[in-house]
Automatic annotation (TrEMBL):
Keywords: Membrane, Transferase, Transmembrane, Transmembrane helix. One of its GO terms (molecular function) is phosphotransferase activity, for other substituted phosphate groups. Residues 28-129 form the Bacterial sugar transferase domain. The keyword Transit peptide does not apply. It comes from the Bacteria. This is Exopolysaccharide biosynthesis polyprenyl glycosylphosphotransferase. Belongs to the bacterial sugar transferase family.
Length: 129
Protein backbone atom coordinates (compact mmCIF):
# COMPACT_ATOMS: atom_id res chain seq x y z
CA UNK A 1 0.00 0.00 0.00
CA UNK A 2 2.82 2.36 0.87
CA UNK A 3 4.48 1.72 -2.49
CA UNK A 4 1.20 2.48 -4.29
CA UNK A 5 0.85 5.77 -2.42
CA UNK A 6 4.44 6.64 -3.30
CA UNK A 7 3.79 5.93 -7.00
CA UNK A 8 0.56 7.92 -6.85
CA UNK A 9 2.42 10.75 -5.14
CA UNK A 10 5.14 10.71 -7.81
CA UNK A 11 2.56 10.84 -10.64
CA UNK A 12 0.71 13.67 -8.94
CA UNK A 13 4.00 15.47 -8.41
CA UNK A 14 4.84 15.24 -12.12
CA UNK A 15 1.49 16.76 -13.10
CA UNK A 16 1.81 19.39 -10.36
CA UNK A 17 5.34 20.20 -11.50
CA UNK A 18 4.21 20.80 -15.08
CA UNK A 19 1.19 22.77 -13.94
CA UNK A 20 3.10 25.07 -11.59
CA UNK A 21 6.32 25.39 -13.58
CA UNK A 22 4.85 25.96 -17.02
CA UNK A 23 1.29 27.21 -16.37
CA UNK A 24 -0.28 27.98 -19.74
CA UNK A 25 2.86 27.49 -21.80
CA UNK A 26 3.30 25.31 -24.87
CA UNK A 27 5.17 22.71 -22.75
CA UNK A 28 2.15 22.20 -20.52
CA UNK A 29 -0.05 21.92 -23.61
CA UNK A 30 2.33 19.35 -25.13
CA UNK A 31 2.35 17.38 -21.87
CA UNK A 32 -1.48 17.37 -21.80
CA UNK A 33 -1.70 16.20 -25.43
CA UNK A 34 0.84 13.39 -24.93
CA UNK A 35 -0.92 12.09 -21.79
CA UNK A 36 -4.36 12.33 -23.44
CA UNK A 37 -3.09 10.44 -26.50
CA UNK A 38 -1.58 7.69 -24.36
CA UNK A 39 -4.81 7.33 -22.37
CA UNK A 40 -6.82 7.20 -25.58
CA UNK A 41 -4.71 4.31 -26.88
CA UNK A 42 -4.96 2.50 -23.54
CA UNK A 43 -8.74 2.96 -23.24
CA UNK A 44 -9.66 2.24 -26.89
CA UNK A 45 -10.34 -1.51 -26.35
CA UNK A 46 -12.62 -0.71 -23.41
CA UNK A 47 -14.46 1.98 -25.35
CA UNK A 48 -14.99 -0.29 -28.37
CA UNK A 49 -16.28 -3.08 -26.13
CA UNK A 50 -18.76 -0.71 -24.50
CA UNK A 51 -19.94 0.49 -27.93
CA UNK A 52 -20.65 -3.07 -29.08
CA UNK A 53 -22.39 -4.02 -25.82
CA UNK A 54 -24.65 -0.95 -25.89
CA UNK A 55 -25.52 -1.70 -29.51
CA UNK A 56 -26.43 -5.29 -28.65
CA UNK A 57 -28.30 -4.38 -25.45
CA UNK A 58 -30.87 -1.96 -26.83
CA UNK A 59 -31.77 -0.41 -30.18
CA UNK A 60 -30.92 3.20 -30.92
CA UNK A 61 -27.96 5.52 -30.81
CA UNK A 62 -24.79 4.56 -28.96
CA UNK A 63 -24.25 8.07 -27.64
CA UNK A 64 -26.41 10.50 -25.68
CA UNK A 65 -25.84 14.16 -26.46
CA UNK A 66 -27.00 17.14 -24.49
CA UNK A 67 -26.33 20.85 -24.73
CA UNK A 68 -24.91 22.33 -21.55
CA UNK A 69 -23.67 25.74 -20.56
CA UNK A 70 -19.91 26.01 -20.11
CA UNK A 71 -17.35 28.59 -19.15
CA UNK A 72 -18.46 32.13 -19.80
CA UNK A 73 -22.03 31.01 -20.53
CA UNK A 74 -20.99 29.43 -23.83
CA UNK A 75 -23.11 26.38 -24.77
CA UNK A 76 -21.35 23.15 -25.70
CA UNK A 77 -22.47 19.65 -26.66
CA UNK A 78 -21.73 16.95 -24.09
CA UNK A 79 -21.35 13.35 -25.29
CA UNK A 80 -21.90 10.29 -23.09
CA UNK A 81 -22.52 6.62 -23.70
CA UNK A 82 -26.27 6.04 -23.68
CA UNK A 83 -27.32 4.25 -20.49
CA UNK A 84 -31.09 4.64 -20.85
CA UNK A 85 -33.66 3.53 -23.40
CA UNK A 86 -34.34 5.78 -26.37
CA UNK A 87 -36.89 8.46 -25.49
CA UNK A 88 -36.01 8.45 -21.79
CA UNK A 89 -36.35 12.23 -21.60
CA UNK A 90 -40.00 11.97 -22.67
CA UNK A 91 -40.64 9.11 -20.23
CA UNK A 92 -39.26 11.23 -17.38
CA UNK A 93 -42.49 13.25 -17.16
CA UNK A 94 -44.59 10.08 -17.05
CA UNK A 95 -42.36 8.63 -14.35
CA UNK A 96 -42.54 11.89 -12.39
CA UNK A 97 -46.36 11.77 -12.48
CA UNK A 98 -46.30 8.23 -11.02
CA UNK A 99 -44.05 9.28 -8.15
CA UNK A 100 -45.80 10.85 -5.18
CA UNK A 101 -42.76 12.80 -3.95
CA UNK A 102 -42.28 16.32 -5.25
CA UNK A 103 -38.90 16.70 -6.95
CA UNK A 104 -37.45 13.93 -9.12
CA UNK A 105 -33.65 13.74 -9.19
CA UNK A 106 -32.86 10.02 -9.25
CA UNK A 107 -35.13 7.03 -9.02
CA UNK A 108 -33.67 4.05 -7.15
CA UNK A 109 -34.87 1.41 -9.64
CA UNK A 110 -35.33 3.58 -12.74
CA UNK A 111 -37.03 1.43 -15.41
CA UNK A 112 -35.50 3.53 -18.18
CA UNK A 113 -31.95 2.32 -17.46
CA UNK A 114 -30.78 -0.56 -19.66
CA UNK A 115 -28.86 -3.60 -18.36
CA UNK A 116 -25.63 -2.33 -19.88
CA UNK A 117 -26.51 1.15 -18.59
CA UNK A 118 -26.50 -0.08 -14.99
CA UNK A 119 -23.02 -1.48 -15.46
CA UNK A 120 -21.48 1.56 -17.17
CA UNK A 121 -23.07 3.92 -14.62
CA UNK A 122 -21.80 1.86 -11.69
CA UNK A 123 -18.21 2.29 -12.88
CA UNK A 124 -18.75 5.77 -14.46
CA UNK A 125 -17.76 4.44 -17.89
CA UNK A 126 -20.66 6.37 -19.44
CA UNK A 127 -18.75 9.59 -18.76
CA UNK A 128 -15.62 8.63 -20.76
CA UNK A 129 -16.49 10.03 -24.20
Amino acid sequence: MRRYLLLLSQRHSLWLYFNMAYGNSWRKRLFDIVIATLLLFILTPLLLTVVVLIYLDSPGSIFFTQTRIGKGGKPFTMWKFRSMVMGAEKQKLELHNEMSCGVLFKVKQDPRITRMGRFIRKFSIDELP
